């Protein structure tokens, strides 16, 4: 079980806010495969406040998309609070404040992870949001462990953490890398353990280096965090949610999805995306998902390349017909490991088998 304020979840496994990925179609796929909670991709406060097509997409929260979190990023406290108010009115079950994005363009505009270097501004943002939301939904924050490895950066992290607890936040997601690290080098899980000991009963979600169910369970056991926020590890791999649930329940991890099951899931995802974007845009939107789904296929390189080249609905379906045909004698499917770099290495060893199959 997991609590984010008044929001009660039946498993401590959630889908993170993933910029460019966690749209309604991805969230639906995650839920169908065991995600207890999903966040929309991070949105700029000014986009929430500006009427138009972009805002209409943000407020597309149907009945089957609950519980859902809305994550916001910005630089100006008053504008940020007004955006949070609109997202609550638009149907989001929680509001999450992004103090963790490490993208250079975001940092240059004093948003996301930049605010870890400005504790006063970060705390003013949280204060304004909590006051504006006024208890209608829980408010949480997403943080990295600091701008860098300096003592001053760590002190700023804990100043923000303690201050937001005093303001009444319901949960904190902590990524074990610094902003300067971006996605390079290991996530420091020992820091997550320190944070959990520091806050006591407050809900802490851990993030960073979670690429398989074993990673998720190991993080919870080693650090004491209350749940895990799956990010890159769940893109093109919705099965990770039910796999993690099985391990947490003391059951064996289910076998990896067969090639045929992968194909059915990808088609389902494509159809959900098509309802959102239409025939012209969907192939472009789904290309990045196809590349990620391909990592589970025993012929990774060839399938990845096929998805990259598919530029129409017809070409997409041809990739599925050719590379996910249940009647073909595919090499064995193996589960993802906690080392993404091993996927490509393993794919090279299977290239000869797949060239004959394809």
Describe the structure.
This protein has 358 residues and is an alpha/beta fold. It folds into two domains: 247 residues, Alpha-Beta Barrel (TIM Barrel), CATH 3.20.20.70; 99 residues, no CATH class. 49% of the residues lie in helices and 13% in strands. Strands 3-4-6-7-8-9-10-11 form an eight-stranded parallel beta barrel, surrounded by six helices. Helix 1 runs antiparallel to helix 11 and helix 12 packs antiparallel against helix 13. It is globular, with a radius of gyration of 20 Å. The model has no long low-confidence stretch (mean pLDDT 92).
Our Rg estimate from Cα atoms comes to 20 Å
Largest beta sheet: strand ordering: 3-4-6-7-8-9-10-11
Q: Which residue ranges are poorly predicted, with pLDDT under 50 across at least 5 consecutive positions?
A: none
Number of domains: 2
Features:
TIM Barrel; 2 domains; alpha/beta; globular; 358 residues; 15 helices; 8-stranded parallel barrel; two-stranded antiparallel ribbon; 49% helix; 11 strands; single chain
Note the topology.
Elements: E1 2-4, E2 7-9, E3 13-15, H1 24-32, E4 37-39, E5 43-44, H2 45-49, H3 53-58, E6 68-73, H4 77-89, E7 94-99, H5 104-108, H6 119-133, E8 139-144, H7 151-167, E9 171-175, H8 189-199, E10 203-207, H9 213-223, E11 227-230, H10 239-248, H11 259-293, H12 300-309, H13 313-323, H14 341-349, H15 351-357
